[in-house]
Amino acid sequence: MKKILILNGPNLNLLGVREKGIYGDQSFETYFEELKSQFPNLELSYFQSNSEGSLIDKLHEVGFSWDGIVFNAGAYTHTSVAIGDAIAAINTPVVEVHISNVHQREAFRHHSYLSKNCKGIIVGFGLDGYRLAIDSFTK
C-alpha cells in the first residue's frame, strides 16, 4: 500500500475559520476524512505545523521511505529557502499545493522557493487540489 503524507504549513490549521472567501468554510480535518474514503487503497497521513523547523523535520522523517508528499507550505512557500533545500535533499516526490491561485494575489506570493524541487504544482482549485495531487501518485 502506497504511503502518502499531506503536509500543511502555517495557518492552515485555521481552514474553515479564516478568510472563508479565499479558503472556504470546511476544516481540513473534515476534508481529510473525505480524502481517506476516496483513496481506500492508500495509506494517507496528515501533519500540520506553524513551525518551519517542524515541517523540515517531517520532510526528513518521511522523505526517504514514503511514496509521496502533498505539501502546502503556506506563506513559507514564498520565504523559506530552508524548506526548498529540504525538498531537494529527499528522495520522495513532492507536489506543491495551494488552495488559492497565488498568481492572482499579492506580488510576493508569485514566487516559490519550493517549486523547482517539486514533481508538480497545483494552484487555485481549492481543497480539491489535494485530491488532484494525491491522484498524481496513483498513476
Blueprint (SSEs and pairs):
Elements (H helix, E strand, L loop, with lengths): L1 E7 L11 H4 L4 H11 L3 E7 L3 H11 L5 E5 L8 H9 L4 E5 L21 E4 L4 H9 L3
Parallel strand pairs: 1-2, 1-3, 3-4, 4-5
Helix pairs in contact: 3-4
Shape: globular
- Largest sheet at a glance? 5 strands, parallel
Based on DSSP secondary structure assignment, what is the total number of beta strands? 5
The secondary structure category is alpha/beta
Strand content: 15-25%
Output the radius of gyration: 14 Å
Mean pLDDT score: 93
- Which ranges are low-confidence, i.e. pLDDT below 50, for 5 or more consecutive residues? none
Give, in spatial order, the strands making up the sheet with the most strands: 2-1-3-4-5
What proportion of the residues is helical, as a percent range? Answer: 25-40%
Quote the distance from N terminus to C terminus.
Answer: 14 Å
Helix-strand pattern: EHHEHEHEEH
Question: How many distinct helices?
Answer: 5
Explain this structure.
By secondary structure, the chain is α/β, with parallel strands linked by helices. It is 32% helix and 20% strand. The protein contains five helices and five strands, in the order βααβαβαββα. The chain has helices at residues 20-23, 28-38, 52-62, 81-89, 128-136, and strands at residues 2-8, 42-48, 68-72, 94-98, 120-123. Strands 2-1-3-4-5 form a five-stranded parallel β-sheet, sandwiched between helices. β3 (68-72), α4 and β4 form a beta-alpha-beta unit. α3 (52-62) packs parallel to α4 (81-89). It is globular. The protein starts with a strand and ends with a helix. The relative contact order is 0.21. The mean pLDDT is 93.
